[in-house]
Specification:
Organism: Streptomyces polyasparticus
Oligomer: single chain
Keywords: Coiled coil
Largest sheet: 4 strands, parallel
Coiled coil: 414-476
Structural class: alpha/beta
Protein name: Recombinase family protein
Domain Resolvase/invertase-type recombinase catalytic: 11-158
Number of helices: 15
Protein backbone atom coordinates (compact mmCIF):
# COMPACT_ATOMS: atom_id res chain seq x y z
CA UNK A 1 0.00 0.00 0.00
CA UNK A 2 1.34 3.43 -0.99
CA UNK A 3 2.34 5.78 1.80
CA UNK A 4 -0.01 8.70 2.40
CA UNK A 5 2.16 11.86 2.72
CA UNK A 6 -0.84 13.94 3.87
CA UNK A 7 -2.12 11.68 6.64
CA UNK A 8 -3.54 13.70 9.55
CA UNK A 9 -2.90 17.10 7.99
CA UNK A 10 -5.14 20.14 8.47
CA UNK A 11 -5.55 21.93 5.14
CA UNK A 12 -7.38 25.12 4.20
CA UNK A 13 -9.47 24.63 1.02
CA UNK A 14 -8.83 27.38 -1.55
CA UNK A 15 -10.70 27.82 -4.83
CA UNK A 16 -10.57 30.32 -7.66
CA UNK A 17 -13.49 30.32 -10.10
CA UNK A 18 -13.77 31.99 -13.50
CA UNK A 19 -17.50 32.29 -14.09
CA UNK A 20 -17.01 33.17 -17.78
CA UNK A 21 -15.11 30.04 -18.86
CA UNK A 22 -17.14 26.93 -19.55
CA UNK A 23 -14.17 24.65 -18.89
CA UNK A 24 -13.77 26.00 -15.37
CA UNK A 25 -15.11 23.91 -12.49
CA UNK A 26 -17.72 25.63 -10.37
CA UNK A 27 -16.90 26.50 -6.78
CA UNK A 28 -19.18 23.67 -5.59
CA UNK A 29 -17.50 21.10 -7.87
CA UNK A 30 -14.06 22.17 -6.68
CA UNK A 31 -15.05 21.87 -3.02
CA UNK A 32 -16.71 18.45 -3.54
CA UNK A 33 -13.52 17.06 -5.11
CA UNK A 34 -11.37 18.60 -2.38
CA UNK A 35 -13.66 17.07 0.27
CA UNK A 36 -13.40 13.65 -1.41
CA UNK A 37 -9.60 14.00 -1.54
CA UNK A 38 -9.55 14.91 2.15
CA UNK A 39 -11.60 11.83 3.02
CA UNK A 40 -9.34 9.52 0.98
CA UNK A 41 -6.14 10.90 2.52
CA UNK A 42 -7.34 11.36 6.12
CA UNK A 43 -7.09 15.15 5.84
CA UNK A 44 -9.11 17.62 7.92
CA UNK A 45 -10.42 20.68 6.09
CA UNK A 46 -10.26 23.76 8.32
CA UNK A 47 -11.67 27.25 7.88
CA UNK A 48 -14.60 28.45 5.83
CA UNK A 49 -14.47 27.73 2.09
CA UNK A 50 -14.58 31.17 0.39
CA UNK A 51 -13.46 30.94 -3.25
CA UNK A 52 -12.19 33.94 -5.20
CA UNK A 53 -14.66 34.67 -8.00
CA UNK A 54 -13.40 36.04 -11.34
CA UNK A 55 -9.98 36.92 -9.90
CA UNK A 56 -7.05 36.80 -12.31
CA UNK A 57 -4.53 34.07 -11.62
CA UNK A 58 -1.69 36.24 -12.93
CA UNK A 59 -1.39 38.25 -9.71
CA UNK A 60 -1.90 37.49 -6.03
CA UNK A 61 -2.40 40.88 -4.37
CA UNK A 62 -6.22 40.97 -4.45
CA UNK A 63 -6.82 37.34 -3.58
CA UNK A 64 -7.12 35.52 -0.26
CA UNK A 65 -3.82 33.62 -0.60
CA UNK A 66 -1.83 35.81 1.81
CA UNK A 67 -4.64 35.57 4.40
CA UNK A 68 -4.41 31.77 4.31
CA UNK A 69 -0.60 31.81 4.47
CA UNK A 70 -0.90 33.93 7.63
CA UNK A 71 -3.31 31.37 9.08
CA UNK A 72 -0.73 28.64 8.45
CA UNK A 73 1.98 30.74 10.08
CA UNK A 74 -0.27 31.17 13.12
CA UNK A 75 -0.57 27.39 13.46
CA UNK A 76 -4.23 27.21 12.41
CA UNK A 77 -3.46 24.78 9.55
CA UNK A 78 -0.66 22.71 8.04
CA UNK A 79 -1.11 23.89 4.48
CA UNK A 80 -3.46 24.91 1.67
CA UNK A 81 -5.45 22.56 -0.60
CA UNK A 82 -6.36 23.50 -4.19
CA UNK A 83 -8.24 21.66 -6.90
CA UNK A 84 -5.52 22.28 -9.49
CA UNK A 85 -2.23 24.17 -9.38
CA UNK A 86 -3.71 26.59 -11.94
CA UNK A 87 -6.20 27.64 -9.22
CA UNK A 88 -3.19 28.69 -7.10
CA UNK A 89 -2.03 30.99 -9.89
CA UNK A 90 -1.03 31.36 -13.53
CA UNK A 91 2.15 33.39 -13.04
CA UNK A 92 5.16 31.07 -12.88
CA UNK A 93 7.32 33.53 -10.92
CA UNK A 94 4.70 34.53 -8.33
CA UNK A 95 3.51 30.93 -8.01
CA UNK A 96 6.95 29.95 -6.75
CA UNK A 97 7.39 33.07 -4.62
CA UNK A 98 4.12 32.52 -2.76
CA UNK A 99 4.66 28.77 -2.45
CA UNK A 100 8.09 29.57 -0.96
CA UNK A 101 6.42 32.00 1.45
CA UNK A 102 3.95 29.27 2.41
CA UNK A 103 6.82 26.84 2.94
CA UNK A 104 8.68 29.39 5.08
CA UNK A 105 5.54 29.68 7.21
CA UNK A 106 5.74 25.92 7.83
CA UNK A 107 3.04 24.95 5.36
CA UNK A 108 2.61 22.90 2.19
CA UNK A 109 0.62 23.42 -1.01
CA UNK A 110 -1.41 20.34 -1.93
CA UNK A 111 -3.21 19.82 -5.27
CA UNK A 112 -6.03 17.31 -5.79
CA UNK A 113 -5.24 16.74 -9.49
CA UNK A 114 -1.44 16.95 -9.15
CA UNK A 115 -1.20 14.99 -5.93
CA UNK A 116 2.42 13.80 -6.13
CA UNK A 117 4.37 14.59 -2.98
CA UNK A 118 6.12 17.95 -3.67
CA UNK A 119 8.90 16.89 -1.29
CA UNK A 120 10.08 14.25 -3.80
CA UNK A 121 12.14 14.97 -6.91
CA UNK A 122 9.41 13.66 -9.23
CA UNK A 123 6.79 15.76 -7.44
CA UNK A 124 8.88 18.92 -7.70
CA UNK A 125 9.49 18.34 -11.42
CA UNK A 126 5.79 17.76 -12.08
CA UNK A 127 4.92 20.94 -10.20
CA UNK A 128 7.45 23.04 -12.12
CA UNK A 129 6.07 21.75 -15.44
CA UNK A 130 2.50 22.47 -14.36
CA UNK A 131 3.42 26.05 -13.37
CA UNK A 132 5.11 26.66 -16.73
CA UNK A 133 2.16 25.27 -18.72
CA UNK A 134 -0.38 27.30 -16.73
CA UNK A 135 1.69 30.46 -17.16
CA UNK A 136 1.96 29.86 -20.93
CA UNK A 137 -1.81 29.31 -21.20
CA UNK A 138 -2.41 32.56 -19.32
CA UNK A 139 -0.07 34.49 -21.65
CA UNK A 140 -1.85 33.01 -24.69
CA UNK A 141 -5.22 34.17 -23.35
CA UNK A 142 -3.77 37.59 -22.61
CA UNK A 143 -2.44 37.90 -26.17
CA UNK A 144 -5.86 36.91 -27.52
CA UNK A 145 -7.66 39.58 -25.51
CA UNK A 146 -5.09 42.24 -26.41
CA UNK A 147 -5.59 41.45 -30.09
CA UNK A 148 -9.37 41.56 -29.60
CA UNK A 149 -9.17 44.95 -27.90
CA UNK A 150 -6.91 46.35 -30.64
CA UNK A 151 -9.32 45.11 -33.30
CA UNK A 152 -12.23 46.84 -31.57
CA UNK A 153 -10.26 50.10 -31.32
CA UNK A 154 -9.34 49.88 -35.01
CA UNK A 155 -13.08 49.67 -35.71
CA UNK A 156 -13.74 52.79 -33.63
CA UNK A 157 -15.13 51.00 -30.58
CA UNK A 158 -13.93 50.90 -26.95
CA UNK A 159 -12.20 47.72 -25.78
CA UNK A 160 -15.51 46.29 -24.54
CA UNK A 161 -19.19 46.98 -25.06
CA UNK A 162 -19.99 48.09 -21.51
CA UNK A 163 -21.79 51.39 -20.93
CA UNK A 164 -19.73 54.54 -20.39
CA UNK A 165 -20.80 57.57 -18.39
CA UNK A 166 -23.08 59.50 -20.74
CA UNK A 167 -23.62 56.52 -23.04
CA UNK A 168 -25.65 53.31 -23.01
CA UNK A 169 -26.64 50.36 -25.16
CA UNK A 170 -29.50 51.17 -27.49
CA UNK A 171 -33.09 50.22 -26.49
CA UNK A 172 -33.16 47.51 -29.17
CA UNK A 173 -30.22 45.63 -27.63
CA UNK A 174 -31.17 42.29 -26.07
CA UNK A 175 -29.35 40.61 -23.17
CA UNK A 176 -28.85 36.88 -23.69
CA UNK A 177 -28.28 34.58 -20.70
CA UNK A 178 -26.20 31.44 -21.08
CA UNK A 179 -25.78 28.78 -18.43
CA UNK A 180 -22.24 27.42 -18.70
CA UNK A 181 -21.15 23.88 -17.91
CA UNK A 182 -19.86 24.97 -14.53
CA UNK A 183 -23.36 26.17 -13.61
CA UNK A 184 -22.65 29.91 -13.70
CA UNK A 185 -24.84 32.25 -15.74
CA UNK A 186 -23.09 34.39 -18.35
CA UNK A 187 -24.92 37.48 -19.63
CA UNK A 188 -23.98 39.16 -22.91
CA UNK A 189 -25.55 41.38 -25.54
CA UNK A 190 -26.74 39.72 -28.72
CA UNK A 191 -25.72 41.31 -32.04
CA UNK A 192 -27.96 44.30 -32.60
CA UNK A 193 -28.85 45.39 -36.14
CA UNK A 194 -30.11 48.78 -34.89
CA UNK A 195 -26.92 50.11 -33.25
CA UNK A 196 -24.38 47.50 -34.48
CA UNK A 197 -22.85 47.49 -31.01
CA UNK A 198 -22.12 51.24 -30.98
CA UNK A 199 -23.05 53.00 -27.73
CA UNK A 200 -25.73 55.69 -27.94
CA UNK A 201 -26.20 58.82 -25.82
CA UNK A 202 -27.75 58.22 -22.40
CA UNK A 203 -30.39 60.98 -21.94
CA UNK A 204 -30.12 60.66 -18.13
CA UNK A 205 -26.39 61.45 -18.02
CA UNK A 206 -25.00 62.52 -21.39
CA UNK A 207 -26.31 66.12 -21.50
CA UNK A 208 -25.18 66.70 -17.90
CA UNK A 209 -21.66 65.46 -18.68
CA UNK A 210 -21.42 67.96 -21.53
CA UNK A 211 -22.82 70.74 -19.33
CA UNK A 212 -20.37 69.96 -16.52
CA UNK A 213 -17.38 70.15 -18.88
CA UNK A 214 -18.51 73.40 -20.50
CA UNK A 215 -19.26 75.19 -17.24
CA UNK A 216 -16.05 74.02 -15.58
CA UNK A 217 -13.95 75.18 -18.54
CA UNK A 218 -15.72 78.55 -18.28
CA UNK A 219 -14.56 78.98 -14.69
CA UNK A 220 -17.19 77.46 -12.37
CA UNK A 221 -15.93 75.41 -9.40
CA UNK A 222 -15.88 71.62 -9.73
CA UNK A 223 -17.14 71.02 -6.17
CA UNK A 224 -20.13 73.32 -6.63
CA UNK A 225 -20.95 71.71 -9.98
CA UNK A 226 -20.75 68.18 -8.54
CA UNK A 227 -23.12 69.15 -5.72
CA UNK A 228 -25.55 70.81 -8.13
CA UNK A 229 -25.57 67.74 -10.40
CA UNK A 230 -26.30 65.53 -7.41
CA UNK A 231 -29.20 67.74 -6.39
CA UNK A 232 -30.52 67.55 -9.95
CA UNK A 233 -30.55 63.75 -9.71
CA UNK A 234 -27.44 62.83 -11.71
CA UNK A 235 -25.87 59.58 -10.48
CA UNK A 236 -23.01 57.31 -11.53
CA UNK A 237 -23.59 54.18 -13.61
CA UNK A 238 -23.79 52.31 -10.30
CA UNK A 239 -26.49 54.72 -9.09
CA UNK A 240 -24.25 56.42 -6.53
CA UNK A 241 -23.37 60.02 -5.76
CA UNK A 242 -20.50 61.41 -7.84
CA UNK A 243 -17.82 63.52 -6.23
CA UNK A 244 -15.36 65.74 -8.06
CA UNK A 245 -12.88 62.91 -8.70
CA UNK A 246 -15.61 60.72 -10.23
CA UNK A 247 -16.68 63.54 -12.55
CA UNK A 248 -13.13 64.15 -13.73
CA UNK A 249 -12.55 60.42 -14.18
CA UNK A 250 -15.56 60.29 -16.52
CA UNK A 251 -14.57 63.40 -18.48
CA UNK A 252 -10.83 62.68 -18.69
CA UNK A 253 -11.47 59.67 -20.96
CA UNK A 254 -12.47 62.01 -23.81
CA UNK A 255 -15.34 59.66 -24.63
CA UNK A 256 -17.93 62.45 -24.64
CA UNK A 257 -15.75 64.22 -27.25
CA UNK A 258 -16.18 61.19 -29.51
CA UNK A 259 -12.65 59.90 -28.83
CA UNK A 260 -10.97 56.68 -27.72
CA UNK A 261 -7.73 56.82 -25.74
CA UNK A 262 -4.73 54.55 -25.32
CA UNK A 263 -1.03 54.39 -24.51
CA UNK A 264 1.79 53.20 -26.72
CA UNK A 265 4.47 53.06 -24.03
CA UNK A 266 4.32 52.66 -20.24
CA UNK A 267 4.93 55.92 -18.37
CA UNK A 268 6.63 56.49 -15.03
CA UNK A 269 6.55 59.38 -12.62
CA UNK A 270 9.52 60.42 -10.45
CA UNK A 271 7.49 61.10 -7.32
CA UNK A 272 4.51 58.74 -7.23
CA UNK A 273 4.64 54.96 -7.04
CA UNK A 274 1.94 54.28 -9.61
CA UNK A 275 2.94 52.81 -12.97
CA UNK A 276 1.26 55.76 -14.62
CA UNK A 277 1.19 59.20 -12.97
CA UNK A 278 -2.60 59.34 -13.37
CA UNK A 279 -5.38 58.83 -15.90
CA UNK A 280 -5.42 62.51 -16.82
CA UNK A 281 -5.55 63.28 -20.56
CA UNK A 282 -1.91 64.40 -20.81
CA UNK A 283 -0.75 60.92 -19.78
CA UNK A 284 -2.24 59.28 -22.89
CA UNK A 285 -0.59 59.59 -26.29
CA UNK A 286 -3.07 57.65 -28.44
CA UNK A 287 -6.30 59.40 -29.33
CA UNK A 288 -8.55 58.34 -32.17
CA UNK A 289 -12.06 59.08 -33.32
CA UNK A 290 -14.66 56.55 -32.19
CA UNK A 291 -17.84 55.48 -33.96
CA UNK A 292 -20.06 56.85 -31.17
CA UNK A 293 -21.59 60.34 -31.33
CA UNK A 294 -19.74 63.20 -29.65
CA UNK A 295 -21.49 65.28 -26.97
CA UNK A 296 -18.99 68.16 -27.03
CA UNK A 297 -16.87 69.77 -29.73
CA UNK A 298 -13.16 69.07 -30.15
CA UNK A 299 -12.54 72.76 -29.41
CA UNK A 300 -14.16 72.41 -25.98
CA UNK A 301 -12.25 69.17 -25.40
CA UNK A 302 -8.92 70.87 -26.18
CA UNK A 303 -9.81 73.71 -23.79
CA UNK A 304 -10.68 71.13 -21.11
CA UNK A 305 -7.32 69.37 -21.62
CA UNK A 306 -5.42 72.64 -21.34
CA UNK A 307 -7.14 73.51 -18.06
CA UNK A 308 -6.60 70.02 -16.65
CA UNK A 309 -2.91 70.17 -17.56
CA UNK A 310 -2.55 73.53 -15.82
CA UNK A 311 -3.60 71.89 -12.54
CA UNK A 312 -1.18 70.09 -10.22
CA UNK A 313 -1.01 66.34 -10.84
CA UNK A 314 -3.32 64.18 -8.74
CA UNK A 315 -5.02 67.20 -7.16
CA UNK A 316 -8.13 67.69 -9.29
CA UNK A 317 -10.40 66.32 -6.57
CA UNK A 318 -9.28 68.67 -3.81
CA UNK A 319 -11.79 71.10 -2.39
CA UNK A 320 -11.96 74.59 -3.88
CA UNK A 321 -11.81 75.91 -0.31
CA UNK A 322 -8.99 75.73 2.22
CA UNK A 323 -8.12 77.35 5.52
CA UNK A 324 -4.59 78.35 4.57
CA UNK A 325 -2.85 79.94 1.60
CA UNK A 326 -0.91 76.75 0.77
CA UNK A 327 -3.74 74.27 1.40
CA UNK A 328 -3.72 71.48 -1.17
CA UNK A 329 -0.25 72.31 -2.48
CA UNK A 330 1.91 70.34 -0.01
CA UNK A 331 2.97 66.77 -0.88
CA UNK A 332 5.39 64.33 0.75
CA UNK A 333 8.66 63.71 -1.13
CA UNK A 334 10.15 61.43 1.55
CA UNK A 335 10.50 57.67 1.33
CA UNK A 336 7.90 55.48 3.01
CA UNK A 337 8.67 52.38 5.07
CA UNK A 338 9.02 50.21 1.95
CA UNK A 339 11.82 52.47 0.71
CA UNK A 340 9.82 53.90 -2.19
CA UNK A 341 8.59 57.48 -2.62
CA UNK A 342 5.58 58.29 -0.45
CA UNK A 343 3.71 60.97 -2.43
CA UNK A 344 1.15 61.50 0.34
CA UNK A 345 -0.90 64.66 0.69
CA UNK A 346 -0.14 66.91 3.67
CA UNK A 347 -2.71 67.61 6.39
CA UNK A 348 -2.88 70.69 8.58
CA UNK A 349 -2.91 70.43 12.35
CA UNK A 350 -2.09 72.28 15.56
CA UNK A 351 0.66 71.66 18.09
CA UNK A 352 2.49 73.53 20.86
CA UNK A 353 5.58 75.53 19.95
CA UNK A 354 7.62 74.50 23.01
CA UNK A 355 7.61 72.39 26.17
CA UNK A 356 5.69 75.03 28.15
CA UNK A 357 2.61 74.25 26.04
CA UNK A 358 1.54 77.88 26.08
CA UNK A 359 1.60 78.83 22.40
CA UNK A 360 -0.03 76.82 19.62
CA UNK A 361 1.30 76.82 16.05
CA UNK A 362 -0.07 75.51 12.75
CA UNK A 363 1.81 72.47 11.43
CA UNK A 364 1.56 70.28 8.33
CA UNK A 365 2.47 66.60 8.14
CA UNK A 366 2.09 63.75 5.66
CA UNK A 367 -1.27 62.00 5.99
CA UNK A 368 0.51 58.62 5.76
CA UNK A 369 2.38 59.55 8.94
CA UNK A 370 -0.86 60.47 10.74
CA UNK A 371 -3.31 57.80 9.60
CA UNK A 372 -3.29 54.19 10.78
CA UNK A 373 -1.49 52.11 9.74
CA UNK A 374 1.45 54.51 9.70
CA UNK A 375 3.42 53.90 6.48
CA UNK A 376 5.60 57.04 6.37
CA UNK A 377 7.79 58.66 9.02
CA UNK A 378 6.65 62.05 7.76
CA UNK A 379 8.34 65.42 7.84
CA UNK A 380 6.60 68.11 9.88
CA UNK A 381 6.73 71.69 8.66
CA UNK A 382 5.26 74.88 10.09
CA UNK A 383 2.78 76.95 8.12
CA UNK A 384 4.89 80.04 8.78
CA UNK A 385 7.98 78.29 7.39
CA UNK A 386 6.18 77.28 4.20
CA UNK A 387 4.70 80.74 3.67
CA UNK A 388 8.10 82.34 4.29
CA UNK A 389 9.72 80.03 1.71
CA UNK A 390 6.92 80.73 -0.78
CA UNK A 391 7.26 84.51 -0.34
CA UNK A 392 11.02 84.32 -0.80
CA UNK A 393 10.54 82.19 -3.91
CA UNK A 394 7.99 84.64 -5.35
CA UNK A 395 10.38 87.54 -4.80
CA UNK A 396 13.08 85.62 -6.68
CA UNK A 397 10.74 85.09 -9.62
CA UNK A 398 10.56 88.84 -10.20
CA UNK A 399 14.24 89.01 -11.04
CA UNK A 400 15.31 89.06 -14.65
CA UNK A 401 17.55 86.05 -14.15
CA UNK A 402 14.69 83.82 -12.97
CA UNK A 403 12.43 85.01 -15.76
CA UNK A 404 15.19 84.22 -18.26
CA UNK A 405 15.57 80.68 -16.87
CA UNK A 406 11.80 80.12 -17.05
CA UNK A 407 11.74 81.39 -20.63
CA UNK A 408 14.66 79.10 -21.50
CA UNK A 409 12.81 76.06 -20.12
CA UNK A 410 9.61 77.07 -21.94
CA UNK A 411 11.59 77.47 -25.15
CA UNK A 412 12.90 73.93 -24.76
CA UNK A 413 9.33 72.59 -24.45
CA UNK A 414 8.24 74.58 -27.50
CA UNK A 415 11.23 73.33 -29.52
CA UNK A 416 10.42 69.73 -28.60
CA UNK A 417 6.78 70.25 -29.60
CA UNK A 418 7.84 71.83 -32.91
CA UNK A 419 10.14 68.89 -33.65
CA UNK A 420 7.29 66.52 -32.92
CA UNK A 421 4.98 68.48 -35.24
CA UNK A 422 7.56 68.34 -38.05
CA UNK A 423 7.61 64.57 -37.60
CA UNK A 424 3.83 64.07 -37.39
CA UNK A 425 2.51 66.37 -40.09
CA UNK A 426 4.14 64.48 -42.99
CA UNK A 427 2.77 61.24 -41.50
CA UNK A 428 -0.72 62.72 -41.45
CA UNK A 429 -0.39 63.86 -45.05
CA UNK A 430 0.86 60.42 -46.09
CA UNK A 431 -2.05 58.71 -44.30
CA UNK A 432 -4.54 61.02 -46.05
CA UNK A 433 -2.84 60.35 -49.41
CA UNK A 434 -3.21 56.60 -48.83
CA UNK A 435 -6.92 57.13 -48.13
CA UNK A 436 -7.35 59.10 -51.34
CA UNK A 437 -5.44 56.45 -53.30
CA UNK A 438 -7.57 53.70 -51.75
CA UNK A 439 -10.72 55.44 -52.96
CA UNK A 440 -9.25 55.70 -56.48
CA UNK A 441 -8.49 51.98 -56.46
CA UNK A 442 -12.09 51.20 -55.50
CA UNK A 443 -13.53 53.51 -58.17
CA UNK A 444 -11.29 51.90 -60.77
CA UNK A 445 -12.49 48.45 -59.70
CA UNK A 446 -9.08 47.18 -58.64
CA UNK A 447 -10.24 46.21 -55.13
CA UNK A 448 -13.59 44.86 -53.93
CA UNK A 449 -15.92 46.58 -51.45
CA UNK A 450 -15.00 44.40 -48.47
CA UNK A 451 -11.27 45.03 -48.91
CA UNK A 452 -11.94 48.75 -49.28
CA UNK A 453 -13.98 48.94 -46.07
CA UNK A 454 -11.37 47.01 -44.08
CA UNK A 455 -8.42 49.07 -45.32
CA UNK A 456 -10.38 52.30 -45.07
CA UNK A 457 -11.11 51.70 -41.37
CA UNK A 458 -7.42 50.97 -40.69
CA UNK A 459 -6.26 54.11 -42.53
CA UNK A 460 -8.92 56.33 -40.93
CA UNK A 461 -7.87 55.10 -37.47
CA UNK A 462 -4.22 55.81 -38.35
CA UNK A 463 -5.03 59.27 -39.73
CA UNK A 464 -7.13 60.19 -36.70
CA UNK A 465 -4.36 59.01 -34.36
CA UNK A 466 -1.84 61.29 -36.08
CA UNK A 467 -4.34 64.15 -36.00
CA UNK A 468 -4.88 63.68 -32.26
CA UNK A 469 -1.12 63.53 -31.61
CA UNK A 470 -0.65 66.73 -33.63
CA UNK A 471 -3.38 68.44 -31.59
CA UNK A 472 -1.63 67.31 -28.40
CA UNK A 473 1.75 68.66 -29.60
CA UNK A 474 0.13 71.95 -30.61
CA UNK A 475 -1.46 72.12 -27.16
CA UNK A 476 1.95 71.60 -25.51
CA UNK A 477 3.42 74.30 -27.72
CA UNK A 478 0.69 76.76 -26.74
CA UNK A 479 0.83 75.92 -23.02
CA UNK A 480 4.63 76.35 -22.78
CA UNK A 481 4.35 79.90 -21.53
CA UNK A 482 6.25 81.70 -18.78
CA UNK A 483 4.57 83.33 -15.78
CA UNK A 484 3.48 86.93 -15.93
CA UNK A 485 6.06 88.71 -13.78
CA UNK A 486 3.77 91.65 -13.10
CA UNK A 487 1.12 89.34 -11.63
CA UNK A 488 3.73 87.73 -9.36
CA UNK A 489 4.89 91.18 -8.30
CA UNK A 490 1.34 92.16 -7.36
CA UNK A 491 1.01 88.99 -5.26
CA UNK A 492 4.25 89.78 -3.43
CA UNK A 493 3.21 93.39 -2.80
CA UNK A 494 -0.17 92.34 -1.39
CA UNK A 495 1.06 89.30 0.54
CA UNK A 496 0.76 90.97 3.97
CA UNK A 497 -2.38 92.95 3.09
CA UNK A 498 -5.02 91.99 5.72
CA UNK A 499 -7.78 92.71 3.19
CA UNK A 500 -6.49 89.99 0.83
CA UNK A 501 -8.72 86.96 1.29
CA UNK A 502 -7.19 83.50 1.76
CA UNK A 503 -9.17 82.22 -1.25
CA UNK A 504 -7.66 84.92 -3.48
CA UNK A 505 -4.16 84.11 -2.22
CA UNK A 506 -4.79 80.41 -2.84
CA UNK A 507 -5.96 81.00 -6.42
CA UNK A 508 -2.97 83.25 -7.11
CA UNK A 509 -0.50 80.69 -5.75
CA UNK A 510 -2.05 77.82 -7.66
CA UNK A 511 -1.65 79.76 -10.89
CA UNK A 512 2.15 79.90 -10.41
CA UNK A 513 2.96 76.90 -8.17
CA UNK A 514 2.28 73.36 -9.29
CA UNK A 515 3.16 71.75 -5.96
CA UNK A 516 5.30 72.13 -2.84
CA UNK A 517 7.30 69.02 -1.96
CA UNK A 518 8.41 68.44 1.64
CA UNK A 519 11.58 66.37 2.13
CA UNK A 520 12.50 64.63 5.38
CA UNK A 521 15.92 65.54 6.80
CA UNK A 522 18.12 64.06 9.57
CA UNK A 523 16.99 64.70 13.12
CA UNK A 524 17.79 68.23 14.27
CA UNK A 525 17.56 69.74 10.80
CA UNK A 526 14.49 71.56 9.45
CA UNK A 527 12.44 69.86 6.70
CA UNK A 528 13.47 70.74 3.18
CA UNK A 529 10.91 72.69 1.11
CA UNK A 530 10.97 72.34 -2.67
CA UNK A 531 8.69 74.62 -4.71
CA UNK A 532 7.76 73.40 -8.18
CA UNK A 533 6.46 76.13 -10.52
CA UNK A 534 3.56 75.62 -12.90
CA UNK A 535 5.69 76.45 -15.95
CA UNK A 536 8.54 74.41 -17.48
CA UNK A 537 11.60 74.79 -15.31
CA UNK A 538 14.98 73.46 -14.37
CA UNK A 539 14.92 71.91 -10.85
CA UNK A 540 16.22 74.42 -8.32
CA UNK A 541 17.74 73.88 -4.92
CA UNK A 542 15.08 73.53 -2.28
CA UNK A 543 14.95 75.55 0.92
CA UNK A 544 15.00 74.43 4.51
CA UNK A 545 12.13 75.24 6.84
Amino acid sequence: MLENPYDGMRLIPYGRVSQLHEDSESDADQFDKMAAFAERHNVTLVGKYEPDLDMSGTEFSKRKVRKYISAVADGEADGILVMRLSRWGRNDTENRVYEKELSSAGGILVSVMESEDPNTRAGRLRRKMAYLLDSEESETRGDYWRDTHEKRRANGRPHNGSARFGYMRCPECIVVEETLKNGSVHRRYAKCKACKGILVVDPARGPYAAEFMKRWVNGEGASALALEMYERGVRSLAGKKMGVSQWFAALDSGFIAGLLRGRTLPLKHPLYKKRYPSNRPEHYDRWQKGEHAALVSLELWEAYKRKRRSQSPEKASRSDKGKYSVSGLLWCASNDKSGGPCGGKYKAGTTYSDSTRTEKVKMFNCRHALDAPKTCAGAQVRLTSVESAVLQWLEEQRTGETAALAEEAATEVRDTAEARLKELRPRLEKAQAKLDNLLDLKLEGEIDGATYERKQKELVAQRDMYAAQIADAEDRHRSASTPHMEAIGNLVDRWHDPKMKVSVKQASLRSVIREIRIHRTPRGYPSRIEIVPSWPHQPAESQEA
